[in-house]
């Protein structure tokens, strides 16, 4: 029966130009020996996408804001104030031999949203530590001043204050560049949405809402926080979050479908080697064969969308 269903469904989909969004639900009506084989397939059809002449779109790419000395100093000041407040809350000591903040998963943000990893403030010197280690920890604590200095810079992972200055400048430049690129892409999406038309199936919106929730949970996990605690802090629920995100989810799906159509029209290709390169950095030991295939499809689609977006950006840049 399974072979017959696959065979007939493939023929029907090809003949009628049907593209299901997920595996069809099959209900067998008749499988008797002397009766016709009858089954019903239920599925959601991939929506038709129509789009105008997107190549005529022109969007000006704004140069990223240059970082001034004032920006860097203000950012360091913000980091310093947050660091002092955290030390006061924890009452811990800082040792040069502590694990890096990135390994410990601890960080603070400056005013621009820059994540700065800091060393583990909650660690205490034990009897097994050398006297010099304890002395450095005690010295670092006693020499906290009212303004950023080398001791502070070393406590959060830099070599000294000058090195921290370089790190912060680079981070701020990256943030500004990413912000300018995101704004550029958003303007392109708005233009494309004006030209494109597609009816978004509810199943795709639900999938996007699940992805948005997963991204939130992953970010909270990196911060060593739980989704349940976040919901309690925000005085909201998952259902309320999804309701709040509904409009953005629909927009995301619409953009994705239009980009996919552009990629197909422009014959964007993804080489097997590109997928394998990404797979090299992913753990697949505990995945079933079916899960591995799904992962490969997901990676291939992401590469396809990225290459399509790159093509669009090059074409529409004014």
TrEMBL record:
Domain Trigger factor ribosome-binding bacterial intervals: 4-79
Chain intervals with Polar residues compositional bias: 128-141
SUPFAM superfamilies with a match to the protein in the record: Triger factor/SurA peptide-binding domain-like, Trigger factor ribosome-binding domain
UniProt entry keywords in alphabetical sequence: Coiled coil, Isomerase, Rotamase
Region Disordered, annotated ranges: 120-146
Coiled-coil regions listed: 206-244
A molecular function (GO) term: peptidyl-prolyl cis-trans isomerase activity
Segments forming domain Trigger factor C-terminal: 161-293
GO biological process: protein folding; protein transport
Superkingdom of origin: Bacteria
Protein name: Uncharacterized protein
Organism expressing this protein natively: Candidatus Curtissbacteria bacterium RIFCSPLOWO2_01_FULL_42_50
């Amino acid at each position: 029966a399974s072979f017959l269903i696959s065979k007939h469904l493939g023929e029907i989909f090809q003949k009628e130009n049907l593209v299901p969004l997920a595996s069809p639900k099959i209900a067998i009506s008749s499988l008797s020996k002397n009766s016709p084989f009858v089954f019903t397939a239920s599925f959601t059809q991939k929506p038709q996408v129509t789009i105008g002449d997107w190549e005529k779109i022109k969007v000006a790419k704004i140069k990223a804001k240059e970082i001034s000395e004032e920006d860097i100093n203000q950012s360091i000041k913000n980091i310093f104030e947050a660091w002092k407040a955290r030390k006061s809350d924890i009452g811990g000591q800082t040792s040069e031999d502590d694990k890096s903040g990135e390994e410990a998963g601890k960080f603070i943000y400056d005013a621009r949203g820059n994540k700065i990893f800091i060393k583990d403030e909650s660690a205490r010197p034990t009897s097994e530590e050398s006297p010099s280690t304890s002395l450095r920890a005690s010295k670092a604590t006693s020499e906290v001043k009212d303004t950023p200095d080398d001791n502070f810079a070393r406590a959060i992972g830099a070599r000294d204050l000058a090195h921290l200055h370089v790190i912060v400048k680079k981070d701020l430049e990256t943030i500004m560049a990413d912000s300018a690129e995101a704004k550029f892409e958003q303007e392109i999406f708005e233009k494309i949405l004006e030209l494109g038309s597609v009816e978004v199936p509810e199943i795709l919106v639900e999938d996007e809402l699940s992805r948005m929730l997963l991204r939130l949970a992953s970010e909270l996990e990196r911060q060593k926080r739980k989704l349940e605690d976040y919901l309690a802090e925000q005085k909201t629920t998952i259902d309320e979050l999804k309701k709040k995100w509904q409009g953005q989810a629909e927009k995301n799906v619409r953009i994705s479908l239009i980009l996919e159509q552009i990629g197909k029209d422009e014959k964007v290709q993804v080489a097997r080697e590109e997928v394998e390169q990404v797979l090299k950095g992913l753990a697949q030991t505990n995945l079933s064969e079916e899960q591995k295939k799904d992962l490969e499809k997901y990676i291939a689609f992401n590469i396809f969308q990225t290459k399509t977006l790159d093509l669009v950006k090059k074409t529409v840049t004014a």
